[in-house]
From TrEMBL:
SMART domains tied to this protein: AAA
GO cellular component terms, A-Z: plasma membrane
Annotated protein name in UniProt: ATP binding cassette subfamily C member 3
Family in the record: Belongs to the ABC transporter superfamily. ABCC family. Conjugate transporter (TC 3.A.1.208) subfamily.
Gene name linked to the record: LOC114040434
Taxonomy of the source species: Eukaryota, Metazoa, Chordata, Craniata, Vertebrata
Bilayer disposition of the protein: Multi-pass membrane protein
Alphabetized SUPFAM superfamilies for the sequence: ABC transporter transmembrane region, P-loop containing nucleoside triphosphate hydrolases
MF terms in GO: ABC-type xenobiotic transporter activity; ATP binding; ATP hydrolysis activity
Length: 1185
């Protein structure tokens, strides 16, 4: 039997929920008392001789009954809403726990965005459903009772009205079904839009460097187009359903009265019958409308239930996947696969690793080195054999996973602090120099994904975390690739090597660096998922196998394998202190402080807040279109007029004198009544439709502005703003603008005109009522303002405490393997639960504030009923029964209207914030224009490829220090220049300046004599080519990743793939160029992704090529391939390379050595080595001098 998520929910939350249901039952029964009292009141007015106290008693009873009803109803709500937030917390928790144990193949079937959606959208659906769930039994009960009382009043004619109601139910059902189908379709669009958006945000730097923003924003717009299409269809349906539910009660009463009058001439429609029936029909109105709504929410929730259940049923990692074993660490004949369709993985291997040894794993790109490490962590699916690991494990992944916490927290990773050891490890991992530069030392808050650390720093923090964990086994997946050669040497000597901190531990090191292999106890050479050779360094050299061949190619001569004097490495270290300007990120502590002050301010300045609100409403009205806005209000006014007209006509009709037991001209009376009613329905339908069209118009405008602005935002905006926050604008806020604001406005206008017409009717029948209107209105407005202010701040607190849950969650999903390797799953669950609790703390007061509001507003409504009845009793001499019936039956329905009106007004105020937030992000500062029409470079620019920096300085952001100071240099066309220097010396910044990702603080850059600041960004960026540091791929076909604009032919693409030696891999895929890359290119190894970036560069063939540490994560063989390709294909081009391995640039024309943002040395490699300066020291470390 399949596990049922629903059953689990019922057993957990059912009992508490049932208490609420009991209160609901009592309240439903009480709601039928007032119509009976109204009937008595009308009798009293028509009977002149009745004693006055009799009338006052009835009025008092009406009031008392209403008050009791109010109190009980809110008790019910309290139970229901609390169940709702408990549900959400439970579901969030269970999804979080599941995400930590889900297998890789399962993770691939649902992307990060979808999983986060389960937590945010689908869990919320349950909360919404719970509030309505009781209607499932309460609505039918109310309907049956209402029909019973109507039967007593009007006899069998009621059946005509009931029949009509029953006929309307399937119609509403059909509309609900159709709406649901549209909703599913729209969810699909929304999912894919958010997924693409999150990829765009994570790869935004690459989009900018390649000038690809346009192509991607077109993709988003295309999805959005489809989404709005579906919204428009939903709007049509909604207009029809609004029409039916608005006209239903009226049509029902019309038909019932018509049948009643026509069946028998003796049936007289007097005030008592007409208005008691009307108030019963009004009670009927709510359950009839609620039923289809509940059913549609139920169907939506069932979709969510299926989605969550599907996710919870995903395969989990087998806890027995790894044997924890005493002895050594071995993998016996274990066949490992990562997804059955992965062709490149270890097919079958036998390997044993003795305790305390250092094992190096080498091999070409994509041969399964990382997969082997994953297998040892138990992250792969095991087909056969066994994997056994003794002791605890520490893991350093190839791409460092950094938490959004302080640097110290990242290193400690939940272990207790040991100051002496901590300092020692920071020194061994070469982090001390970086700490001097970070603004808060090791207390610096690190942004999402380690955004304010350089690649090398991230990798070293990740390594320090592993070392600090003091495990028994260390799995190091290429930790030395992201750092410079002398840093790598330092780390090897002080951490990984035989004399390092990890001396006696078992270490498995995947590496591409040849220089350290001589110190490994065992070297394993992988090829195509098999162990092609294994043995010690000397043994492998004598075997004359693939390994020896590999070494001969890459190592100039044997003597640099001797241990070098490591002193030079270190002295150089202290010379070139890292200079990197990190981005200080607002910590949550600061945020909550800001919020507190914000709350205090808003308490002081409600007036200012109101002004801000008005400007936002105005902005929204403009987005909707002023013409449409005015039309909607006009239509509503007409509708109210028609409704009042119909009811006054009815009261007039009931007062018609009875002659010989019948009333004259009944048919005329009926005709006019019907015409007015139908007119009212038509107005409603028109206004609903007009408003929906306006809402879609606004949604389109606001989304387009937001997207356009985000595509034009400068890079530093993305470095300082967590991507979750931007994504939230595109998901949550756009959703609110699409689907929440238009219906809210519709309801608000409806209730407002409803309440207004009630007051008009009561005042016209009992003018005395004017006296109480002012105090009641005063009380009402006070309650509304008080509530709106509180609720807004509570909502704000709620949403501020909500986003950490999701950002922590997406962080956990990306770092799941690291968390599991360190066995920290329990701690992370606790952190997540704490974040959920913090969020609940602001949800609960929100619920309570709603109860507070409800009781006070309903009190105002109950007063209206009381005074309407009271004045009817006082003025009974001058009133006829028809008018009394009219005014009191109107008063009875005002409570609901008033209540909804406050809620809708507050909802609108809270939700309109979404417009404000979207606008705020649509108006942030943009970078320079993409194309400047007046000054475009000549079409063949740059033809020489000459680059000149003139007295150039740059900083990351306003108010930070300069990263590059007064650089002046000139690179001739076709030169090959290597750029070297310690991490953070400004190497990457220099390339970013060429692309104007960073704008000059002073000075200029000339390319072929054109000042790059004078032309459009796309004109500049599309003419330069970069192979960036982190290879970024987008989910989609390989073709789209190479050429999103579709500029190149298939032949050109295959040629590029051939030159970047990917054609073998792509050719082996059945889809060829249409091979689907998964999110972030997960289904290619890092090396292959790097080759894809090379292929992109080959396609563009521009005169200037920038290589940014591109060869860091690649093994030497691929490295050779890339270098050879660049030498042959970019022969006449200017090449600027940021080098980590000096052997790649030894044959370049010149080498630029940067130090702290200034030029230290700039000359040909041979001259620099002769000069015995910084470069000589680096070359000596790398064994090249």
């Amino acid at each position: 039997r399949e596990p049922s998520f629903l059953r689990a929910l019922l057993t957990t939350f059912g009992p508490y929920f049932l208490i609420g249901s009991f209160y609901k039952l009592i309240q439903d029964l009480l709601s039928f008392v007032n119509p009976q009292l109204l009937s008595i009141l009308i009798q009293f007015v028509s009977n002149r001789s009745a004693p006055a106290w009799w009338g006052f008693l009835v009025a008092g009873l009406m009031f008392g009954c209403s008050i009791i009803q109010t109190l009980i109803l809110h008790q019910h709500f309290q139970y229901v809403f609390v169940t709702g937030i408990r549900l959400r917390a439970g579901i969030t928790g269970v999804i979080y726990r599941k995400a930590l144990v889900i297998t890789n193949s399962a993770k691939r079937s649902s992307t990060l965005g979808e999983i986060v959606n389960l937590m945010s959208v689908d869990a919320q659906r349950f909360t919404d459903l719970v509030n309505f769930l009781n209607m499932l039994w309460s609505a039918p009960m109310q309907i049956i009772l209402a029909i019973y009382f109507l039967w007593q009043n009007l006899g069998p004619s009621v059946l005509a009205g009931v029949a009509l109601m029953i006929l309307l139910i399937p119609l509403n059902g059909a509309i609900a079904m159709k709406t649901r189908a549209f909703q599913v379709e729209q969810m699909g669009y929304k999912d894919s839009r958010i997924k693409l958006m999150s990829e765009i945000l994570s790869g935004i730097k690459v989009l900018k460097l390649y000038a690809w923003e346009l192509s991607f924003s077109q993709m988003i717009e295309k999805i959005r187009q489809g989404e709005l299409q579906v919204l428009r269809k939903m709007a049509f349906l909604n207009a029809v359903s609004t029409f039916t539910w608005f006209s239903a009660p009226f049509l029902v009463s019309l038909i019932t009265f018509a049948v009643y009058v026509s069946v028998d001439d003796k049936n007289i429609l007097d005030a008592q019958k007409a208005f008691v029936s009307l108030s019963l029909f009004n009670i009927l109105k709510f359950p009839l409308n609620a039923l289809p709504q509940v059913i549609s929410i139920l169907t939506q929730t069932s979709v969510s239930l299926k989605r969550i259940q599907h996710f919870l049923n995903h395969e989990e990692l087998d806890p027995q996947r790894l044997e924890m074993r005493i002895g050594f660490f071995s993998a016996h004949a274990s066949q490992l696969t990562l997804d059955s369709w992965f062709s490149l993985l270890p097919t079958s291997l036998n390997l044993q690793v003795p305790k305390g040894s250092l094992v190096a794993i080498v091999g070409p790109v994509g041969c399964g080195k990382t997969s082997l490490i994953s297998a040892l962590l138990g992250e792969m699916e095991k087909l056969e054999g066994k994997v056994a690991v003794k002791g605890s494990v520490a893991y350093v992944p190839q791409q460092a996973w950094i938490q959004n916490a302080t640097l110290q927290d990242n290193v400690l990773f939940g272990q207790p602090m040991d100051q002496k050891r901590y300092q020692g490890i920071l020194e061994a991992c070469a982090l001390l120099t970086d700490l001097d530069v970070l603004p808060g030392g090791d207390q610096t808050e690190i942004g999402e994904k380690g955004i304010n650390l350089s690649g090398g720093q991230r990798q070293r923090v990740s390594l320090a975390r592993a070392v600090y964990s003091d495990a028994d086994i260390f799995l190091l997946d290429d930790p030395l690739s992201a750092v410079d050669s002398h840093v790598a040497k330092h780390i090897f000597d002080h951490v990984i090597g035989p004399g390092g901190v990890l001396g006696g531990k078992t270490r498995i090191l995947v590496t591409h660096g040849v220089s350290f292999l001589s110190q490994a106890d065992l070297i394993i050479v992988l090829g195509d998922g098999r162990v092609s050779e294994a043995g010690s360094f000397s043994a492998l050299l004598q075997q004359e196998g693939a390994f020896a061949e590999f070494l001969r190619n890459y190592v100039p001569d044997d003597d640099n394998f001797q241990e070098e004097d490591s002193a030079t490495g270190i002295s150089l270290y202290t010379n070139a202190i890292c200079l990197r300007i990190p981005l200080s990120l607002v910590s949550y502590g600061l945020l909550s402080h800001l919020l507190l002050t914000a709350t205090l301010e808003s308490a002081v300045t409600p007036f200012l807040a109101l002004q801000v609100k008005l400007s936002v409403f105005w902005a929204y009205a403009k987005a909707v279109g002023l013409c449409i806005s005015v039309t909607v209000c006009f239509l509503y006014t007409c509708q109210s007029a028609a409704a009042i007209g119909a009811n006054i006509w009815l009261s007039d009709w009931t007062n018609e004198p009875v002659i010989n037991g019948t009333q004259s001209n009944t048919s005329l009376r009926l005709g006019v009544y019907a015409a007015l009613g139908i007119l009212q329905g038509i107005f409603v339908m028109m206004s609903s439709f007009t408003l929906a069209i306006g809402g879609i118009q606004a949604a389109r405008t606001l989304h387009n502005n937001l997207l356009a602005n985000k595509m034009h935002s400068p890079q530093f905006f993305y470095d300082t703003t967590p991507s979750g926050r931007i994504l939230n604008r595109f998901s949550k806020d756009i959703y609110v603008i699409d689907e929440v604001i238009p219906p809210t406005i519709l309801m608000l206008l409806g209730t407002f005109f409803n309440s207004a017409s009630t007051l008009v009717v009561i005042m016209s029948s009992t003018p005395l009522f004017v006296v109480v209107i002012l105090p009641l209105a005063g009380l009402y407005i006070f309650v509304q303002r008080f509530y709106a202010a509180t609720s807004r701040q509570l909502k704000r607190l709620e949403s501020v405490s909500r986003s950490p849950i999701y950002s922590h969650f997406s962080e956990t999903v990306t770092g799941a393997s690291v968390i599991r390797a360190y066995r920290r799953s329990q701690d992370f669950m606790a952190i997540s639960d704490a974040k959920v609790d913090a969020n609940q703390k602001s949800c609960y007061p929100n619920i309570i504030s709603n109860r507070w509001l409800g009781i006070r507003v309903e009190f105002v409504g109950n007063c209206v009923v009381f005074f309407a009845a009271l004045f009817a009793v006082i003025g009974r001499q001058s009133l006829n029964p028809g008018l009394v019936g009219l005014s009191v039956s109107y008063a009875l329905q005002v409570t609901l209207s008033l209540n909804w009106m406050v809620r809708m007004a507050s909802d609108l105020e809270n939700n309109i914030v979404a417009v404000e937030r979207v606008r705020e992000y649509s108006e942030t500062k943009t970078e320079a224009p993409w194309v400047i029409e007046g000054s475009r470079p000549p079409p063949d620019w740059p033809h020489q490829g000459e680059v000149e920096f003139v007295n150039y300085s740059v900083r990351y952001r306003e108010g930070l220090e300069l990263v590059l100071k007064n650089l002046s240099l000139r690179v001739k066309g076709g030169e090959k220049v290597g750029i070297v220097g310690r991490t953070g010396a400004g190497k990457s910044s220099m390339t970013l300046c060429l692309f104007r990702i960073l704008e000059a603080a002073q000075g200029e850059i000339l390319i072929d004599g054109v000042n790059i600041a004078s032309i459009g960004l796309h004109d500049l960026r599309s003419m330069l080519t970069i192979i960036p540091q982190d290879p970024v791929l987008f989910s989609g076909t390989l073709r789209m990743n190479l050429d999103p604009f579709g500029k190149y032919s298939d032949e050109e693409m295959w040629q590029a793939l051939e030159l970047s030696s990917l054609h073998k891999f792509v050719g082996s895929q059945p889809q060829g160029l249409d091979f689907e890359c998964s999110e972030g290119g997960e289904n290619l190894s890092v090396g292959q992704r790097q080759l894809v970036c090379l292929a992109r560069a080959l396609l563009r063939k521009s005169r200037i090529l920038v290589l940014d540490e591109a060869t860091a994560a690649i093994d030497l063989e691929t490295d050779g391939l890339i270098q050879a390709t660049i030498r042959s294909q970019f022969e006449g081009c200017t090449v600027l390379t940021i080098a980590h391995r000096l052997n790649t640039i030894m044959d370049y024309t010149r080498v630029l050595v940067l130090d702290k943002g200034t030029i230290a040395e700039f000359d040909s490699p041979t001259n620099l080595i002769m000069a015995r300066g910084i470069f000589y020291g680096m070359a000596k470390d790398a064994g090249l001098a």
